[in-house]
């Protein structure tokens, strides 16, 4: 009996071991792909057949993400998408981890992101996939943290991003491309771009073991055009690279006209919708079903707006937390799926902000540097706010598992006042420009035509002075032109004198002062690209002087164009040459005194100002903000990183966000290019908070006569998709090399 008992015990442990073995083997077994085009019943049969052979073969659970019975199915189980847009190109890679953790604490299971073509191919054939363009690391970390991904590779993305993600060099191609169309020349470039991008993400598709469950075709195309051949081409191109299993989807505004033009009927592409927050979602979801195959239309708002964008000159857009949460409840309460746009907005670092237009292309509204969007996770990653809490509460009511705890906000630090020195006038740096970079033409050329995709371009010509005042007319300038003149024959001639500005959205004429000059007068026009239009019919938005220039009614010929080489975030060299020259210039107190006029004000701009601040201990390195209160308009660079544009005189944004990874232990260097007017004290402050209250104090300047207004007349408001809640330093004498440089540029023969 004792022997028989031992036999039973042995059999018992063998059985337990076999069960344990069968339980763990599938974890290590290869995961086969599973077609998203199988029916639900076929899926069940397939799984049943798998069970029949368990006795002889290890069961492997298929890894799949599909649509059937008007539901999403993940690995054969019903699934609801509760996602959020978070753009890898608007944050530093060091922030990916904690932003995903905050997103999970909010209750999200999916991250949606655009892929901006211009970030990854800033110049034809020059590809960038590292640093702020590190898409693959972003996707892999999503996977590691068990977050699914909805990928939006464009080629057009909108997103309040420069030119809607298109590289600006597309605008220089002749004959002109027809963007967002079946134009064969345009499609060849798209084919080449997707032929680079899509193979990089194919291993990260869900069926291949990665996080990507859906890939979007174009973006809100129904609001732009109705070129079905274009959409079909993109679908065929995507399928060729990604295969048949991945779900392709479109996003369009929830109106019949938009869906008619922007969707592809049948089951090849899943049609999703977006709409104004607060609209009744369910009639729109019902309409969505008409544009999907039967059983293939789970209700999904692929852009649920948690806030809204803000343009320069507007009040900062905000939406009520409880109102937004109530609108979300309407979707989730009936098992709808949703993607929060945005869960975290981030920052338009560098020159990458977009712009909108209104009734015409002169009705131009550039976006501010911050893309905070009034999202539940703020620009600097804070979550201790009413909107995060309200949305989390609603999401928690509609998820079976308890939500992760909410981590603490990241620390912020104000490093105090930063005393600046003027280190160079912009025009003093012309001698550092390579003559080979100077472009000559009978008439002005666009920025893109001379290879300047962002920032500034200086136009130089000359004219013969007359006794009466001359009138300068530039019918079309994109976007902001500062006009300067210089009489070379005057003994006290130092550098070009600022005359005034001509803006895209305001007056196109400017009176040039009566000047008694024995020589011709040089005319300098510094044009700033304030951001390519990213949405609407005027997206083919070239920059610079786009028309003839008239002086007293006659066309002014003979132009030289000098690119001002501020490199963008992803362009080499990583250190801006012109910034380094500005840094190398020094200034003494006595020189500063000589540069003051009789009223005691610091003399004219544009000029570079440099300051230094110190972080004594490594553990004091935290996020900070640079406050530009009292300054005019310009760009700022911290430790060789372009943190963006500032314009507090216009508002509403006062401060620029500086993420901690940009800072370093010890000395930190701030360089700014001030275009309009510096703070008289030449002081900037590092503070521990964002501020969107600038601009209102100078409202009276907007209605001042053009000849006296400090600030250009602001553009009128434009119609939006949804309701808004809502200006080496030389000494006092002209440096010989500078004067000679300007004279050569002005008088040299073509």
Automatic annotation (TrEMBL):
A GO BP annotation: carbohydrate metabolic process
Keyword vocabulary terms for this entry: Glycoprotein, Glycosidase, Hydrolase, Signal
Any one Pfam family match given in the protein's UniProt record, by short name: BetaGal_gal-bd
Every Beta-galactosidase galactose-binding domain range: 606-668
InterPro entries attached to this UniProt entry: BetaGal1-like_ABD1 (IPR048912), BetaGal_gal-bd (IPR048913), Galactose-bd-like_sf (IPR008979), GH (IPR017853), Gly_Hdrlase_35_cat (IPR031330), Glyco_hydro_35_CS (IPR019801), Glycoside_Hdrlase_35 (IPR001944)
Reactions mediated catalytically: Hydrolysis of terminal non-reducing beta-D-galactose residues in beta-D-galactosides
EC number assigned by the record: 3.2.1.23
Protein's name according to its UniProt entry: Beta-galactosidase
Residue ranges occupied by any Beta-galactosidase 1-like first all-beta domain in the UniProt entry: 444-564
Annotated ranges, domain Glycoside hydrolase 35 catalytic: 71-395
Organism: Salix dunnii
Family: Belongs to the glycosyl hydrolase 35 family.
Molecular functions per Gene Ontology: beta-galactosidase activity
SUPFAM superfamilies documented for this protein: (Trans)glycosidases (SSF51445), Galactose-binding domain-like (SSF49785)
